[in-house]
Amino acid sequence: MSAYISSFAANAIGIIGSILFIAAFAYANMAKMLDQLLFNAVNLVGAILLLISLSVHFNLAAFLLEAAWALIASWGLLRALRARRTRGDSA
């Protein structure tokens, strides 16, 4: 994938992913009631963006962290979707 993404673009994508992580963390610490769907979706997108960035600037430790983060966020997202479907929420 690195042949298709410039170093500048990879850095920009990684920075956006990092901003999403920070925003989700801040939200989790400030929200009176955490929206699990939103929280996990933002974390998943952040992890994916950082994994894209790592395809250009590879670092094994960061790759393992982001892959685990994406898996956990995916699991949380699926649980939140199931819970909403069970409750019959449309939002």
From TrEMBL:
InterPro entries: CBU_0592-like. Residues 11-84 form the CBU-0592-like domain. Pfam families: CBU_0592. It comes from the Bacteria. The chain crosses the membrane at residues 12-30, 60-78. The keyword Lipid metabolism does not apply. Keywords: Membrane, Transmembrane, Transmembrane helix. The keyword ATP-binding does not apply. This is Permease. The lineage of its organism: Bacteria, Pseudomonadati, Pseudomonadota, Alphaproteobacteria, Sphingomonadales.
